[in-house]
Write a structure and sequence with these properties.
alpha+beta; four-stranded antiparallel beta sheet; 9 helices
Amino acid sequence: QIEAAAGEFGDAFIETEIGSYNYLGFPTEVAPFDNPDIRKALSMAVDREAINQAIFAGTRAPPTGFAPSLAPGATECANTTYDPEMAKELFDAAGGIDGPVEVFFNSGGGHEEWLQAVANQWQQNLGIGDVTFTGQEFAPYLDVLQSDEGVTGPYRLGWLWDAPTAENFLSPLFLSSSSDNYSRYVNEDFDAAIVEFKGAADEESGFPALATAQEILCEDMPVAAHGPQDEDVVAVPIDLESEAQRFDGAFLAKKTRGCRLVGRAGLGRKWRTGPAEAFHRNGKSADLVRGNSH
């Protein structure tokens, strides 16, 4: 569908970096995912670029850390790099995983294919015998993540920034006091680094503290970031006097002159230039909201 859209819309088809990513979180209080080396192994065993090419036609640059690379203050984490030999070594030394791995995700969001690819690579590179999937609609799925019991295996979520800074990923997802910290990750040194960043005179002078926070995360690996860092949009002429319309995702299969979406939060750019606006590849609403993404 991506390749077809590029051919159909020509110069109107745009690939752009965005302030969001998918991730697989680990329940850090549940064995064996309470072991950082198991979490590192599960991250390094996955060839994100191969998944990008095979499933997303090369349009989803894999993330390299805990915030998108375009976010000011973002740093890279070596444990997001594909290294199956090191992954297997860490995995075996940590005792591996007995029994099946259950992966939790929100169904209906188009995540099945890339999650299956991740599972295949876990099986191939780590020797995990069985990976099962439990999918739910997004609202009840969040209820499970927010419950006292949580989940017992890796879970898929995404995060969309509402401010162009790496901190807008780090604080919500990893501070011990955050209600969006579904991995139940706790590290006092990480919390202290975020406090130091927030107390800095300006953002740039706080970047060393932010780098320290990301170094701690890289050592602990409470989540493994996956794509996308990029998104495809189509600039479509519209009648600015007409009423806004919304489409259900099928607009890529046909030319439209329709919907008026005002843009996605935190992209650091204006979508509209003159009589054109940009629209999401999947046609979904671009309401200015922050946080967990479908």
